[in-house]
Amino acid sequence: QVQLVESGGGSVQAGGSLRLSCASSARTFSKYCMGWFRQAPGKERDGVAVIYTGGGVTYYAPSVEGRFTISQDSAKKTVYLQMDSLKPEDTAMYYCVADGRFCYGLGTVGSFTYWGQGTQVTVSS
């Protein structure tokens, strides 16, 4: 069983930045596809960005490409999501996800076994 603990959400004005963190309890951190999904009120939960912790391969949703950056610190078993140039439409609950495999694209909700509790990001105009 892998536990994911998120932190770093909050409220920011449009154009601002936030950094989300996700700490993993996995024994072998380097063999996971990890990343972030988000869900806005009344909308489906969609992939935002993922990274393969064994090699740094990354995928991004088109809506965040160029504004968000996913990265990892293997020593801390932590994945980060740096979010810049935030827009009101980025407002959502953000969930950290993990699955013990290579990343083949963003994937879907059903592609990930482990989920964090979620952290709220609110962007005001």
Number of H/I helices? 0
Report the portion of residues in β strands. over 45%
Structural class: mainly beta
Low-confidence stretches: none
Biggest beta sheet attributes = 7 strands, mixed
SSE layout:
Layout: E1 4-7, E2 10-13, E3 18-24, E4 33-39, E5 46-52, E6 58-60, E7 68-73, E8 78-83, E9 92-99, E10 114-115, E11 119-124
Parallel strand pairs: 2-11
Antiparallel strand pairs: 1-3, 3-8, 4-5, 4-9, 5-6, 7-8, 9-10, 9-11
Please explain how this structure is put together:
With 125 residues, the chain is mostly beta strands. It has strands at residues 4-7, 10-13, 18-24, 33-39, 46-52, 58-60, 68-73, 78-83, 92-99, 114-115, 119-124.
State the gist of this model.
0% of the residues lie in helices and 48% in strands. It contains no helices and eleven strands.
Features:
48% strand, four-stranded antiparallel sheet, 125 residues, mainly beta
